[in-house]
Amino acid sequence: MAHQALTDSAEIKLDASGKPANILVTGAADGMGLYAIQLAKLGNTHVTATCAAQHIELVKSLGADEVVDCISPDGVALKSPSGKKYDIVIHCGPPTPWSTFEPNLGSNAKIFDLNPTPSAIKTYAIKKLTFSKKQLIPVLLSAKAENLEFLVKLVKEGKLKTVIDSKYSLSKAEEAWAKNVDAMAIGKIILEP
Fold first, then answer.
1. Neighbours of 79 (CB within 10 A)
2. Taking the model in full, what pTM does it have?
């Protein structure tokens, strides 16, 4: 979903040929967030990320230009340490009210919500109906073979790393799901036969 949000929705060119953009990735230490950072850095972007303090070094190692502890005052407020306004937000984190995002957004900013809630969908509708330049856009997965092939190519080239949190046998799928739902995974959870 990170690839879809960045390329299809936000129109970031992953060959760095596009216009510069300031991007915020929330929930940056989860599976989607870690991919979003790496993919965004292939574009012409400055990436700020939020995550828990114990994951800051991991997030930096994958390319984030700035990382904010998500429970610090600046992290809760989603403020960039450099004071930059965001052009694009890839929202992988927990539900966050519009009022938290709004003061940190550039004049035409777009928030792409990878975990949309009914509240996010309501905000999307309100922003559309009022012709707001700043928008929140729910992203729903639209699987395309060419996107997956592109990601596999990046992995083979060493340009995209997959962080594996844990592995479970298929018979323990319920435990794996619970860990995922509780947002306790850092990276991906693998199910094995």
1. 18
2. 0.91
pLDDT by residue (tens digit) across 28-41?
998 899 999 999 99
Backbone torsion region of residue 53, taken as left when φ is above 0, otherwise alpha when ψ lies between -120 and 50, otherwise beta: alpha
Q: What burial class does residue 159 get, using C-beta atoms within 10 Å of its C-beta: 0-12 exposed, 13-18 middle, 19+ buried?
A: middle
Tens of pLDDT along 48-96?
Answer: 999 999 999 999 999 999 999 999 999 999 999 999 999 999 999 999 9
Q: Quick one: three-class SS letters along the chain?
A: CHHHHHHHHCCCCCCCCCCCEEEEEECCCEHHHHHHHHHHHHCCEEEEEEECHHHHHHHHHCCCCEEEECCCHHHHHCCCCCCCCEEEEEECCCCCCHHHHHHHEEEEEEEEECCCCHHHHHHHHHHHHCCCCCEEEECCCCCCHHHHHHHHHHHHCCCCCCCEEEEEEHHHHHHHHHHHHCCCCCEEEEEEC
Q: Evaluate whether 81 touches 60 at the Cβ level (below 8 Å).
A: no
In tens, the pLDDT along 148-186 reads 999 999 999 999 999 999 999 999 999 999 888 777 788
Task: Return the structure tokens found at 77.
Answer: 């407020």
∠ CA 61-25-13, rounded to 5°: 85
